[in-house]
Amino acid sequence: MLLSIIGVLAVQAYWIKTSWINKEEAFSLAVNQVLESVSIEVQNRELNDYILAYERLIDSVGKPDDSNFTDVFLFLPEESSTNLSTFFAYGILQEDYDVDVSSLDPRFGNLANISDYKSVNTTAIISNDIFNRENNMITTVSKLKSVERRNPFEVAKYRTIFMQYMANLPIHKRVSTQEIFLLLNKGLNDKNIKTPFEFGIYNNNLATRVKLNNYSEENKGPSYATPILINDIGESPYELVVFFPQKENFVLSSLIGVVGLSIILTLFIVLVSFSALYQIIQQKKIAVMKTDFINNMSHEFKTPIATIGLAIDAISNSKTINKPIKIKKYTKMIKEENHRMLKQVEDVLRISQLEKRTLQIEKKVIKLHDVVRLAINHVFLLVESRNGKININLSANSDAIFGNNTHLTNVFVNILDNAIKYSTNSPMININSLIKNNKISIFIEDKGMGMDLKSQKLIFQKFYRVQSGNIHDIKGHGLGLTYVKKIIQIHGGQISLKSKKGDGTTFETSFPLFLNKN
Q1: Of the residues 354, 369, 388, which one is the last residue of a structural domain?
Q2: Which domain range does residue 259 map to?
Q3: How far is Cα 49 from Cα 166, in angstroms, rounded to an integer?
């Protein structure tokens, strides 16, 4: 299960990383396409402006002073089934104007004269008989001629002249900040890239005047660059640089939905898996404790059952039946062992009733000091038999509480019983009381074997018993302190302990004082 969880986490991490890389690559590709498109649009716009101004200039000067026509292409198709053939001719018409162009448009101040180029397309349909005989085009059946401006040759000629001239102008006279911003904004919106950007144009790595107002050379964030206003040899000193200060947030926002869902589902799987593991471990611990409890219970019952069996056999013996003293002794033994088994069963039943909350506990105003003294009386002979001692200092000036005398007596008997059982030498027990925050606290301190931190955390759990060495050599079912804690909680009290391995244990129980409002 752990390996599967690690595998799922690794796959999810790899998928998220790959998705991030793919989104960044898609972002970079889209931005580079937009920058290239902007560069081409700015270049074409500038050339078109030049050509339109040039053509308006030509139209304003009237007829040319000189015209030259050059045929650059002739084509006559092979004969067909008809006696007609089509003759194609293509040429370039150059018209020269001897005018001072600088007075008309300052952009053409470097031109000595002005020339215009037009394409001439001629289509002639002729009769094969006449063509073959006369070998001329006089008898053309139909002749179509068209002249159009701005053919590819002419645009190329304009481009060369214009680029040479405009290369000497400063960048802010060739393109505006507003134009770049509008083109970039439109291109990025078309690519669905809606995130703030800043840009500037650099001339040989030096910033120019074409930039956004909030643009600075120390801008943070990824940058993208492309050449702009390329000259006739394919080079440009200018570079359009665009910054995206919130690129990471934009890429993240495009992934947040799927990635978030993936992370939530992965965390859910991890939590469920670890919860299952925790439950399995806990169930295993409980199963071990229950098995231990059953073994202890069987052992505890085995001795009294065997004793009762022997006593019954002795009573049934013909030699004993006429001896009342021995019969009385054996019946007393049966009664004690029966009482012992009954007490063990009652302990288990009380815990079961407490778990189901079916145990009826009647409460009244009682003196807690009297309850403690009664509990001491129950264990006094046991302590004395082991040459132990109980020091009593019940100094609290008020001990009235609202509770059940019987169950609270059992509480303190259980705590004292543990103090006796887990004392390796003669039991030395100190009992004190004091008032804190309208509560009476009873401290029961022993000098026994003590507990480690693990045992302190588990001591109030069902079936748990502190080990001595590597085995459970202390009799009991591990239910006593569970019963103690639940009874104290029912009385609105609290129980805590302080212990150190080898130095003994101190249990502190506290109960709300009964305050007589009359």
Answers
A1: 354
A2: 250-354
A3: 12
* Pair 29, 80 in one domain: no
One domain, residues 440 and 371: yes
SS (H, E, C) 205-240: CEEEEEECCCCCCCCCCCEEEEECCCCCCCCCCEEE
- CATH code where residue 264 lies: 1.10.287.130
Residue 58 forms part of a structural domain: no
Residue range 434-480, pLDDT digits in tens: 998 889 999 999 988 888 888 888 788 776 666 554 434 455 556 67
pLDDT per residue as tens digits for the range 379-429: 887 888 889 999 999 988 888 999 988 889 888 988 998 888 888 888 999
239 and 288: one domain? no
* Tens-place pLDDT, residues 329-376: 888 888 877 876 787 777 677 766 666 666 677 889 999 999 999 989
Say whether pTM exceeds 0.70.
no
The total of structural domains in the chain comes to 4
**Alpha-carbon gap, residue 255 to 261, rounded angstroms:** 10
In a shared domain, residues 300 and 286: yes
Q: Name the nearest CA neighbour of 355 among 462, 493, 455, 280.
A: 462
First vs last C-alpha separation in the chain: 64
d(CA 298, CA 294): 6
Q: Would you put residue 357 in left (φ > 0), alpha (ψ -120 to 50) or beta?
A: left
Together in a domain, 417 and 273: no
State residue 258's pLDDT score.
Answer: 79
Domain harbouring 476, CATH code: 3.30.565.10
350 with 286, same domain? yes
pLDDT, tens digit, for every residue of 232-254?
A: 777 888 888 898 888 888 888 88
Co-location of 499 and 365 in the same domain: yes
Any idea of the CA torsion for 90, 93, 94, 95, to the nearest 10 degrees?
-170
- Amino acid at the residue 260: G
Phi-psi category of residue 291: left, alpha or beta, with phi > 0 → left and psi -120 to 50 → alpha: alpha
Distance between CA 203 and CA 10 in Å, rounded?
47
Question: What 8-state DSSP symbol labels residue 51?
Answer: H
**Are the C-beta atoms of residues 9 and 260 closer than 8 Å to each other?**
no
Q: Determine the 3-state secondary structure of 283 from DSSP.
A: helix
